[in-house]
Amino acid sequence: PGIVVPRTPDEIVQLPGLQAGVKMQLDLGEPFQRLMAFGAYQSDLFQMLGKLVQGQDRVLMAGANIGYVPLALANMGCRVVCFEADPRNVEACRQNLALNPQFDIRLVGEGLSDQAGTLSFWQSDTDSQSSFAVPHHATKQVQVAVRAGDEALDGHGIKELDGIVLDVEGWECHALEGLRQTILGNLPRWA
Predict the structure, then answer these.
(1) Is 91 or 6 the better-scoring residue by pLDDT?
(2) Which of 10-24, 52-66, 86-100 shows the lowest mean pLDDT across its residues?
(3) pLDDT in tens, 134-165
(4) Which of 72, 84, 136, 163 has the fewest Cβ atoms within 10 angstroms?
């Protein structure tokens, strides 16, 4: 089937291309979500992942946003544990994951860092650019729970990863430091 274009801002869309069969509730007024609806969001990333991913890969995704990348990874056969720090995106991500119950995806509504605690988080007017590190078009800061990735994965019984995708807007070094033991214990095939 062709691309289903939403007629209302929050209509459920079946995605095209590599994400064929995935359903998401999207707001076409938001530029990044409009790209998602037409299969044009992060196309270079998905081209590369198509070469790296092997069926049943265990993948950590930090910066899940509203679920587009975790759903695409799961559609490629991956088992995904994803993290999202922006409280505004966590519920939208949960709803989008619920539209696709066939996939093995766990969502953690916290940020990844090098230690557990609470950090100031810049909420961007463009929801895909909120950050711990940089105020991209930010209008306010909120306090957000964070955990070290090693601790978070251990809590989910995950000891090794096949792949890592970080989309954390300048906080990558902190997220990787928090994954030190997991990475040293079993180097993922791809990141």
Answers:
(1) 91
(2) 10-24
(3) 777 778 899 999 999 999 999 999 999 999 99
(4) 136
Helix (H) or strand (E) holding 90: helix 87-98
Q: What is the rounded distance in angstroms from the CA atom of residue 98 to the CA atom of residue 103?
A: 9
Instruction: Tell me the torsion sign for CA atoms 181, 44, 15, 136.
Output: positive
Among 71, 3, 19, 101, which Cα is nearest to 11's? Answer: 3
In the chain, which ranges are E strands? Answer: 12-14, 23-25, 58-62, 79-83, 105-108, 111-113, 117-124, 138-148, 163-166
Closest by Cα among 44, 46, 48 to 72: 46
Q: What residues pair up with 147 in beta bridges, in sequence order?
A: 112
Distance separating alpha carbons of residues 168 and 150, to the nearest angstrom: 17
Q: How far apart are CA 15 and CA 1, in angstroms?
A: 10
Query: Which residues, in sequence order, are CB contacts of 69 under 8 Å at separation 6+?
Result: 42, 45, 61, 63, 82, 165, 167
Q: How far, in Å, CA of 107 to CA of 28, rounded?
A: 24
SS3 166: strand
